[in-house]
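Blackboard transcription, Thursday session:
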Amino acid sequence: MSTGSAIPLDRFGRHTALLRTWLPALGILTDQYFRLQVEGLENIPQEGQVLFVANHGGALPWDVLVLLTVLSRAFPNKAVRPLIEDSIVSTPFIGMFLNRLGCVRASQENAMLLLKKEPQEQLLVAFPEGILGSGKLYSQKHQLQRFGRGGFVSLAHKAQIPIVPVTILGAEDTAPLLTKITPFFRSNTSLPYLPITPLFPLLGLVGFMPLPARWRIHFAEPVWVPEISTTETETSVRQESILNVATTVKTQIQQQLDKMVAARGSAWM
Amino acid sequence: MGLKIHKKRLQPPPQRKIIAVIGAQGSFGRYVVDAVYRTREFQACIALDMQWSQAVKDSLAAQYGDFLCPAECDITQPFAVESLHKIFAQYHVNYVVHCAFFSNPSPHIDLAHELEIIGTRHILQATSSVNIKKVVTTSSVLCYGAHLDHSSWIEEDTTFRPPESRMLKDRAEVDAMTLEYGQGPRNSVYVVARLGCIVPLSERHFLTRYLNQPYILTALGYDPVVQWISPQDAAAAVVALTTSVQTHGAYNIVSSEPISLSQTIAYLGHRALPLPLSSLRYAASLAWSAQLSDIPSGFIDFLKYSVVCSPEKLWHDTEFHHTMNVFETLDQVKLMASKSLHRGIFQSREKLDKEKNI
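(Written on the board underneath:)
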């Protein structure tokens, strides 16, 4: 009766077999539907663990899924772990599905656990804009929001891993957020707001269909965090150094995004 | 040669290891007694409970022979400290495992509080005044609560945030009380065993009943990760905490193999009945108030978020190894439905000896 100890889940809820099953379908979505073009894959270090830092946008986390697909296909022997914000984790169906594919709730503690305790090499993906990124309206598209307090820099410094800045173009066009209804939703549901997109809630659940925008992803050269003082007396200096690195990475992504927007032309054709 | 004899004379006589299991007749206590017997590390086991019928005593005598000695004590009574003290001294008890708790959430809040809080306080007081080496109290990992902001791998230093349930709040208090006792200048070592989701503990246990329904209620859109552990493994882990020299503080006793609730349901051959979380909570609250269900509405949170705990401290400090994988554990749930398991766990001493010889 017993099937042995072949548990498909790891301790973070990742279902390896499910990811393998979904990967071909996700590949069709990214290659055929989104006509994705990837640049700079050669910049990613082949050995060791890496922290990818990407911009975030769109009413639904399609960027998480697309980046997960690209990295899982490029590095089949490593575990891709997008770190997702609380609002996505607690969204019914979406949070559960992304967790099974490898996503983990974004926190320093979880990231360190992944890097230190998991036997497989990890590719962490952070979206420092968090809910500010996914909650930005279509009118604010291609404008990076605040990059938190530089938590990703502290993480890379603590774990001694490189940061690879990733620029994603297409997420905001695929799931454009026209407006959002915040009252009632924040207090009565696990959702921070009700997204209003061109198709949702007009077409019901069909409204969650992604629009066929053209996607581009660019991986920049890795950034190593310089030595930062860890003494308590130099907290302000330390915080400043962290914020400096975070700002550099953000500026780099914003500049790359502007270039890509100009080069792409129409989002649809 | 002469020198050797002299050395031998100087050595103190080896101390007999006698263990007292409090709540030995309870769902989990019975497994602990069995695990104590199987370890062969103790010379005798004092099985303490409120009362023992002659039939049960006879049956235990047939199963464990003179290894097991049933004793009676109501730990909720004001004279419990003296009674326990007397029993510990009489039998030269030096290890105590406390598992006298309700296994199901009880609507009789006062009675549960008396047993869990007052009873534990009496036990701790009694153990501090006699020569007890180690006291192991059982608690629950459910006391951590199901929260979005929990770490994906909960370690023992995580703060308790139990859901709205008197049982878990009491259990958290017992946990804190034991750890606090351990910090004082005492001779005994105080350990807390935080038990995970044990299945199948008994036919009437709420988790067994939940998993044995043809249609299992789940929260629509959520699929938490669970760590089912067999009662045999959980009891063996508690005994390992007792016998190991290194142990102190709290320990998570959970399975090393997390599995999702949907996988569990599929493996058991049942069907999930997903309902919106708000309806589920409302229905659970209503059923609890009408005493139609013994699962408080606060437990519904466990259908939304995972509580995945780390058993690494247990592995590090003891030689405990899981003997059953999660599928073997779930097989026992299926077996429990046919009521065959209960007859199987208390095997006779002769039968065990025979097995070991083979």
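Lecturer's comment: The longest helix of chain A spans residues 235-264.
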